[in-house]
Specification:
Strand content: 15-25%
Structural class: alpha/beta
Helix content: 25-40%
Low-confidence stretches: none
Radius of gyration: 17 Å
Order of helices and strands: EEHEHEHEHEHHEHEHH
Mean pLDDT: 95
Largest sheet: 8 strands, mixed
Number of strands: 8
Length: about 240
């Protein structure tokens, strides 16, 4: 099921298995997918395992309409404007990759946040740089998105530093496979470097979990770690 939520910042598209996810009383796990991903169906398994409703939204511009401002802050403002749909229900914002940055940037009063391997320093994201440039050559219409969010163009790469988003309480899961050194890989390693991990460890409002054996894609690489984290955030949401 698809709900299209008009907001002053643009239309927000929300997907769920049924209307009950939007209109019921269960706690909501609102999944914010990473850039260029439409693989939200894998999160629906949470509904079989936990007493929750799962709602999925894509990063604006690829599998949903663009919003007024192409930036993580702009995505968060649009999401915030759609959240009254879930007023009165416990809410977990679960963001993966760039979606995790949006989860951190959203005001989302009262929401619990679960953030999966967010690219906090895009200048360090060497494992995906070539892939993003290939995407740019295939889809030049994505140039503004790639520049504003990743600091990447066909000839230039600048560092977008999102570490200032680490201000709200959150549980962050990062992959065990280190970002550096640069190397040949068969799956994308974690995009969170050690200095950013140390920054998280030094913040009492943040919980950091390093998922054993995992790379960048936490739910697929470390499903039990992911499920345990959702349960932990759900317990916090219900206790509020």
């Amino acid at each position: 099921m698809l709900r299209k939520i008009p907001t002053p910042h643009g239309e927000v598209w929300l997907h769920a298995a049924s209307d009950a996810a939007f209109d019921g009383e269960r706690p909501v796990v609102l999944v914010i997918l990473g850039a260029f991903s439409n693989a939200g169906g894998r999160f629906l398994d949470l509904e079989r395992l936990l007493p929750v409703s799962v709602v999925v939204t894509a990063t604006p511009g690829e599998f949903s309409p663009p919003v007024a401002e192409t930036s993580v802050a702009g995505f968060a403002r649009a999401l915030d404007a759609a959240l009254p749909l879930f007023a009165g229900r416990p809410l977990i914002l679960c963001g993966e990759s760039v979606g995790g940055l949006t989860a951190l940037a959203a005001e989302a009063p009262g929401a619990q946040r679960l953030v999966l391997d967010p690219p906090l320093r895009t200048g360090k994201a060497w494992p995906i740089r070539s892939w993003l440039r290939e995407l740019l050559s295939e889809k030049p219409e994505r140039a503004d998105f790639l520049w504003q969010v990743f600091g990447l163009s066909s000839h230039e790469a600048v560092d977008r530093d999102y570490t200032d988003l680490l201000s709200p309480p959150a549980h962050l899961i990062v992959g065990e496979a280190p970002l550096y050194p640069e190397r040949v890989f068969t799956r994308i390693p974690s995009l969170v470097d050690e200095p950013e991990r140390e920054l998280m460890r030094g913040q009492p409002h943040l919980t950091l979990t390093v998922a054993p054996g995992a790379g960048h894609f936490i739910p697929g690489d470390a499903p039990q770690v992911f499920l345990a984290a959702v349960k932990e955030r759900l317990a916090r949401a219900l206790a509020q």
